[in-house]
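QUALITY CONTROL LOG
STEP: pairwise intake check
CHECKER ROLE: data steward
CRITERIA: each record must contain a sequence immediately followed by its structure tokens, with no blank fields

ENTRY 1 OF 2
RESULT FIELD BELOW
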Amino acid sequence: MHLVYIGFGSNIGDRLRHIQNSIHALSKVEEITLRKISSVYKTDPVGYAAQAEFLNGVAALQTSLSPLSLLHTLKDIETEVGRQHRIRWGPREIDLDILIYGDMCLQTEKLVIPHPEMHRRRFVLAPLAEIAPNLVHPVLKETIQTLLARLDDDKSALKAECRCFL
């Protein structure tokens, strides 16, 4: 079994419901055991800024799925929850990303592990630091808490008044 961290986010429609439905769908996958779920954070959009604020968080899970099989499972869940692909970095009903997969480093056409931008994104680091502050980034060899403390940006990540429970 591999310890994996998944980022989740939504900024269209009933954002919390999309996240809850995604977490529920993950919990139903036989090869996945959910371990921890962060608080949900209200965050500013990155990239394409002319859109609504996001709800974001991170889930820790254990899985026997390979990285590519897990990616396909996440894409299937996104479709099931109602994701429609629009513009890159644009609005989305749900987004599920593999952030870290054990201590694996992987680079394929479809998947890069660890997520190549995670160390630059407060909306990833804040919830990840909540549930795994001492987790060491497999490439940068620094803890998530250290990466978050050093982050220099003008984005915010505020805990929302809601949680997704196991």
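ENTRY 2 OF 2
RESULT FIELD BELOW
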Amino acid sequence: MNNSNTESSSLGDFSDVAALLADVDALARIPLFRSVAPATLSFYLKECALVDRQAGEIIIQPGRPSEAVFVVINGRTEINLATPERQPLTVLRAGDCFGEMSFLEGKDPSAFVTAVDAVRLLEIPHTTMWSLINVSHALSRNLLVMLSQRVRTDNRVIAESERVLHQYEFRSVTDALTGLYNRHWMEDMFQREISRCQMSDEQASLIMVDIDHFRDFNTEFGHLAGDDVLCSVARAIRKSFRPTDLAARFGGDEFAVLLPEAGLEHAGMVADRARQAIQRFSTEASKRIHQKLPITVSLGVTALHRKDSLENMIERADSALYTAKNAGRNQIAVAA
């Protein structure tokens, strides 16, 4: 595949190969033929053919051998790596060629090439291409340049694909509203960290955080104001814990924080500090409704046992959390 980036979709209205070979200007606009002697082209290409393909027609495709290299004379074609229905990798216009990679590798094509419009193509059999390579250093050099461009294009595609993949991976484990990790990530990473602490005979603690009266707040002020509260609590949680602590949105108005290498006493102190920090964020979260409202949370804390699982820790921390709520909210409770 070569993309000359020309804006033209036509080299001219040629009825046959002889007419094309007689037009020196048209030949000069084909990167594959750049600086190749016209006499050489006339001698070797005179037996080639101009072929027409209709819009939407697949010209080459993976799994189907191709015996020619094609040069676009009129119209446009597009390259698709997966299926013709997918977003094209690139669009080829007049002067561009395709099929050179499978020709040089001696393998079947690795991509779909489909006609965007009705196209006219110069079809060069592989045997003719090898003859031209054997006699023309210029054509060989042009092929090397085209291959270099192909590698650069592939590198850009790979870099962009990795960037997009990273974005999707990030979104797949991140809560879209708060920016904290989501429950899917939590269930995987929390359990890994718990297993590591158990193998290393280290302490760890889990804190469950639940916003007080959140359902009533949503009912009275609306979901947008509720979203502000969730984001405010998430920001306070980020600021209240160490970089090595793992925080996630557990679901709804509940959050979870795992503290590796932290015992129950330390976790309780940190949990109370987070509770106070969340109260200080109440002004920011209330901007949307133009009044200061108290935003408080209840927290349940538990420590890691020797043969514990994440599920068991969540169950104990949740039980402690509801103990805190039943005791009046805006406080912490501990379940050893």
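INTAKE CHECK: passed for both entries
DESCRIPTIVE NOTE, ENTRY 2: The mean pLDDT is 89.
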